[in-house]
């Protein structure tokens, strides 16, 4: 198997200014963690269709999970830059199995912002320790992009909600110990009738379907979830009833930035791997890079990856200041996912038949990247969001 060579910082654009020295020290720590606890096991996890529970606990111990969570709940109270570094190291190692960013940067913030104090004390320290793994369930078999069309309901019954419905494509779904379920508490009110309710695994009536077989992200577990008269106490509601949609919208920029940060690093790393490969590989008596067509392809790729890196870092800097808009986050997600898919396809082509072999990273990265245009809001939905601002 080929090895990882790119360092990740400044290779395309010169020194990056979005991170400080403390961030870079944290990067060293995260990098050591991935090289020791993730990289050696990842091919096995791809065969298993799931990562080990152990790596979650190891990540918790190493302080890799929930960097932004406040210290009183076991986090580091750090900024999103630390989360971005974890995301970049996932992209750098091409180890897409551990759903750490979904847990740390998407699920946990909802709970920290919106759960009752008692629930925060109960769940958050364990989430920081990797003992409780989180997931969020919005998508249903009949709808994904159009959230207001969801059919899962949560009916109030005294001091409980009774949840009925099903969800699909839920990341971390098999491993999840706690799922934020998006459900209609006022079915007649469209998007204004959606609430977010936490459902612990093991609650009677809550079952997990099979681990879905995907064309990429083979080490990441993705599941159907079923809810049949699932009773959870009203204290499991996040924030206020019927405000779920606005909470989702509020957190989406960060979710989309996760995808953008990963795309920027993915392009940088896979470009370097491809350059290494075409320098070695010979065809018609010369290295493949010596054909002008291929050099030009790679020059274009480098120029685009450099431009995207600057833009992604700009969005990251805005987010660190609390100024990333829904529109810019959508722009970053759209461009990152589309450009990454285009470039990875070119990179795979430059590897010839080896690119199509699972043992070469570019083939796996190409398949993994495809979902970037679909989840977190599809590219078409991103264009709708941007289009509305014209
Ligand atoms: C690997 C993976 C992991 C996922 N993880 C999660 C998760 O953890 N939690 C979760 O809730 N969901 C998750 N999803 C679901 C994902 O968010 C949805 O698949 C996505 O939102 C698209 O919804 P859909 O599949 O229902 O497609 P649809 O909404 O049915 O869309 C079908 C097509 O129509 C297009 N379309 C839709 N609306 C418009 C429009 N207004 N204009 C133009 N075109 C449009 C779409 O872009 C797409 O091309 C995951 C999906 C995958 C594949």
From TrEMBL:
Keywords: FAD, Flavoprotein, Oxidoreductase
A GO term for molecular function: acyl-CoA dehydrogenase activity
Cofactor(s) annotated in UniProt: FAD
One cellular component term from this protein's GO annotations in UniProt: cytoplasm
Pathway: Siderophore biosynthesis; mycobactin biosynthesis
Ranges where the Acyl-CoA oxidase/dehydrogenase middle domain occurs: 135-230
Record Gene3D superfamilies: Acyl-CoA dehydrogenase/oxidase, N-terminal domain, Butyryl-CoA Dehydrogenase, subunit A, domain 2, Butyryl-CoA Dehydrogenase, subunit A, domain 3
Function: Catalyzes the dehydrogenation at the alpha-beta position of ACP-bound acyl chains. This results in the introduction of a double bond in the lipidic chain, which is further transferred to the epsilon-amino group of lysine residue in the mycobactin core by MbtK.
Family per record: Belongs to the acyl-CoA dehydrogenase family.
Record-given protein name: Acyl-[acyl-carrier-protein] dehydrogenase MbtN
Gene source species: Dankookia rubra
Classification lineage: Bacteria, Pseudomonadati, Pseudomonadota, Alphaproteobacteria, Acetobacterales
């Amino acid at each position: 198997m080929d090895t990882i060579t790119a360092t990740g910082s400044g290779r395309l654009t010169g020194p990056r200014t979005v991170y400080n020295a403390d961030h870079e020290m944290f990067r060293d720590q995260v990098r050591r963690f991935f090289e020791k606890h993730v990289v050696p096991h990842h091919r096995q996890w791809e065969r298993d269709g799931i990562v080990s529970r152990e790596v979650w606990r190891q990540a918790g111990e190493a302080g890799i999970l929930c960097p932004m969570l406040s210290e009183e709940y076991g986090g580091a109270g750090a900024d999103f830059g630390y989360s971005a570094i974890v995301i970049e190291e996932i992209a750098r190692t091409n180890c897409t199995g551990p759903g750490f960013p979904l847990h740390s940067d998407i699920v946990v913030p909802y709970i920290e912002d919106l759960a009752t104090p008692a629930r925060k004390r109960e769940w958050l320290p364990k989430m920081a320790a990797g003992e409780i793994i989180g997931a969020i369930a919005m998508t249903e078999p009949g709808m994904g992009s159009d959230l207001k069309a969801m059919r899962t309901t949560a009916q109030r019954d005294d001091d409980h909600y009774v949840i009925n419905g099903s969800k699909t494509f839920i990341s971390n779904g098999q491993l999840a110990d706690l799922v934020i379920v998006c459900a209609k508490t006022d079915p007649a009110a469209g998007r204004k009738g959606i609430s977010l309710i936490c459902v612990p695994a093991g609650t009677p009536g809550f079952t997990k379907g099979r681990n879905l077989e995907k064309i990429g992200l083979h080490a990441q577990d993705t599941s159907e979830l079923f809810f049949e008269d699932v009773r959870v106490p009203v204290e499991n509601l996040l924030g206020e009833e019927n405000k779920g949609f606005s909470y989702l919208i509020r957190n989406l920029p960060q979710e989309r930035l996760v995808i953008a940060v990963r795309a920027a690093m993915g392009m940088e790393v896979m470009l370097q791997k491809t350059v290494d490969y075409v320098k070695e590989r010979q065809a018609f008596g010369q290295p493949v890079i010596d054909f002008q067509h291929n050099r030009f392809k790679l020059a274009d790729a480098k120029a685009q990856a450099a431009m995207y890196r600057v833009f992604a870092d700009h969005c990251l800097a805005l987010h660190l200041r609390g100024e990333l808009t829904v529109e810019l986050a959508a722009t970053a997600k759209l461009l990152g996912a589309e450009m990454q898919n285009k470039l990875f396809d070119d990179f795979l082509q430059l590897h010839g038949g080896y690119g199509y072999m699972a043992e070469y990273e570019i083939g796996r990265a190409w398949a993994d990247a495809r979902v970037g245009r679909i989840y977190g809001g599809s590219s078409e939905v991103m264009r709708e969001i941007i289009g509305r601002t014209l």
